[in-house]
Amino acid sequence: MNLHTHFTKITSKSTHFNTISISQNPKTHHHHQHFCTKSSTVHLPLYKPHRKISQLIKIPETKPISTTTTTTSSDILRLLDCLGFPVPDALYISLIKECTELLDVNEAVLLHAHVMNNRCNKPRLGLLNRIMIMFISCGCIQNARQVFDEMSKRDFNSWAIMIAGYADNGDYEEVINLFADPKLQYILYSCSSFPVSWVFVCVLKACGKILNLTLGKQIHGWLIKSGYSDDVFVSSSLISFYGKIGAYEDGDLVFNGMSCSRNVVVWTARISNNCKEENYRQVLDVFKEMGKEGVRKNSFTFASVLSACAKISDDGNCGEQVHANAIKLGLASNSYVQCGLVNMYGKFGLINDAKRVFNVNESNRNHACWNAMLISFVQNGCLIEAIKFLYQMKAAGMQPQELWLDKLRSLCGSEILES
């Protein structure tokens, strides 16, 4: 059975996750009881890995116990082994949490090996789930998958952790494959108390990235039948998904069909879709409507609206109004908003305004903001200022975009500029 057929079969069922309980569901048999646990709520402290490691990390060589003031988790475990003391789960959990926060790959691998090799009984499911979170946080997706594949039992949390890990790692095909697995579908069908909305957020993100409109629409239909279509996070993900696919009208239908209160994420998702559709006047209309509804805008809202203002031929008038609104809300110095303002003013030749915005928050300027200022100088023929600005960028450790560096070289009629 292929993936689309599988989802068609699922979505044809009259499934209501919010009304089915373990005791009420006639399809929940005794030998499947381990799928549905009472402690179904999961909080995933997934830390952004400092690097992503594609291959399986093997157990590193054991080092002597540290004699410095810094003691590692492997030091503690070896000391307990030498003393002949058993390691309780509470200590393992504490050490796993420490490795997760420190993103220490080698210690994570050693800790996992100790859990698996130094116990009379198999580790509990909750402990294995925490180990998967630790590996994913360290960027070791293959190690996490090895733990997942070797588990004799998996609950909803196990599947959710791997789906979140693959989504963060950019492996969107694997997100879909895991979500479509019949074992996970059985869990979703059988149990009512799982916080599934954020899992659907990951899956819809995957559908948008691989441009799978058919599958995304089937998931949308399933969400409606399951009672999750009014969840604000799911709704914002649906709007973003339809925007990435280019099905903007479907995104508007989701937005207009929401019966619950729309938050800033939902409004910003719609504004972003209008930008992608190049319907820039509509962006301003939605922005004004958002204000009338009393929804407080965030930095991402302003960044999207300012990108639309830069495309409207009104000499920057609407951009100035949006700038005033950002100042009123205390967001004008935000790096995303600052970059949008510099870009917008530069597009209309308002270099002094762009420079004024650029100089507002020197400590918080990001790489994009520096390049936006350089582009503004080059686009408006301010070549001497652009060259001087290059020295500022170099002093600040910022790398100019090669495209605009080449453009500046060409305009200057030489190749004396060095990146």
TrEMBL record:
Protein name: Pentatricopeptide repeat-containing protein
Organism field: Tagetes erecta (African marigold)
GO molecular function, a single term: RNA binding
GO biological process: RNA modification
Domain of life: Eukaryota
Keywords: Repeat
PPR repeat feature ranges: 263-297, 366-400
Keyword Transcription regulation annotated: no
